[in-house]
């Protein structure tokens, strides 16, 4: 069984020096073409910034800039307010369309995950019949730990990237306490990330051991199915996390825009 999707896992923290796109990717993009989760933008950090997602913060900045551009022309305020509302409404409609595409992609991805899981069940049933009990235990434990280690690395990479972005954007008004708190979080997460990478290296060694065991029993076709299952299991976990992050980003941006329109609609 072959598939065109075979992305390689990337577990290093995101590089946050480049300014990311404001909004989620265009709906014409496929999952394979989607970039990693956008890195947050520069923003002066205070005690509340770290609890606000960077994509939402960037959207707030853009909206604030739009409003400030209108201030020198207050005499025509009603027209400018209307123009700003129109721009916000256009953004709302655009994000809504993109969210629809991403949610459809999520449904398709879930089907791929289910199909790969079914393939894994077939391989497991064959392995159980032909392997010795201790060999089959190694197979089962490896497959079970694969999910845990990949998800752990993804989680730690994302958290570390957010902390490092917050540190990079501290300004002179940041209190020593806030700075020290972020540095401590960074120190802990760096160590946890290194520990998780060691777990992944150990898992890779176990994968080779399990492959050698199965190669002694399985046909070439069944062995190829096993390799495909393991490769796609990791890739699909990563792709699912990226899709969920993009959907969450879009929903957050949409809520921010809708909330900003409420006072205007109440006028």
TrEMBL record:
Keywords associated with the record? Coiled coil, Cytoplasm, Cytoskeleton
- Listed GO biological process terms: actin filament organization
Question: What range(s) does the ASD2 domain occupy?
Answer: 1-262
Q: Which GO terms describe its cellular component?
A: adherens junction; apical junction complex; apical plasma membrane; cortical actin cytoskeleton
Q: Where is this region: Disordered?
A: 1-48
| Keyword Cytoplasm carried by entry | yes
Q: Name one GO molecular function term.
A: actin filament binding
List the Gene3D superfamilies: 6.10.250.3120
Would you identify the family this protein belongs to, as annotated? Belongs to the shroom family.
In Swiss-Prot or TrEMBL terms, this protein is called Shroom family member 2
Taxonomic source organism: Rhinolophus ferrumequinum (Greater horseshoe bat)
């Amino acid at each position: 069984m072959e598939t065109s999707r075979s992305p390689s896992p990337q577990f290093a923290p995101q590089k946050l020096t480049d300014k990311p796109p404001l909004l989620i990717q265009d709906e014409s993009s496929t999952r394979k073409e989607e970039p990693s989760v956008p890195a947050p933008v520069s923003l002066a950090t205070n005690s509340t910034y770290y609890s606000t997602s960077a994509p939402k913060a960037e959207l707030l900045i853009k909206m604030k800039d739009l409003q400030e551009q209108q201030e020198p022309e207050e005499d025509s305020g009603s027209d400018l307010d209307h123009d700003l509302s129109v721009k916000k409404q256009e953004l709302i409609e655009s994000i809504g369309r993109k969210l629809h595409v991403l949610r459809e992609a999520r449904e398709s991805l879930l089907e791929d995950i289910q199909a790969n899981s079914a393939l894994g069940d077939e391989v497991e049933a064959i392995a159980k019949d032909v392997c010795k009990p201790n060999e089959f235990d190694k197979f089962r434990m490896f497959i079970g730990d694969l999910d845990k280690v990949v998800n752990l690395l993804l989680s730690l990479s994302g958290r570390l990237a957010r902390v490092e972005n917050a540190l990079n954007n501290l300004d002179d008004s940041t209190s020593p306490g806030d700075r020290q708190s972020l540095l401590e979080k960074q120190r802990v997460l760096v160590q946890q990330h290194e520990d998780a990478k060691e777990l992944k290296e150990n898992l890779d060694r176990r994968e080779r051991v399990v492959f050698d065991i199965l190669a002694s029993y399985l046909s070439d076709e069944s062995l190829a199915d096993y390799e495909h299952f393991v490769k796609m299991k990791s890739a699909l976990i990563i792709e699912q996390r990226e899709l969920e992050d993009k959907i969450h980003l879009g929903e957050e941006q949409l809520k921010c825009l809708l909330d900003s329109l409420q006072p205007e609609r109440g006028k």
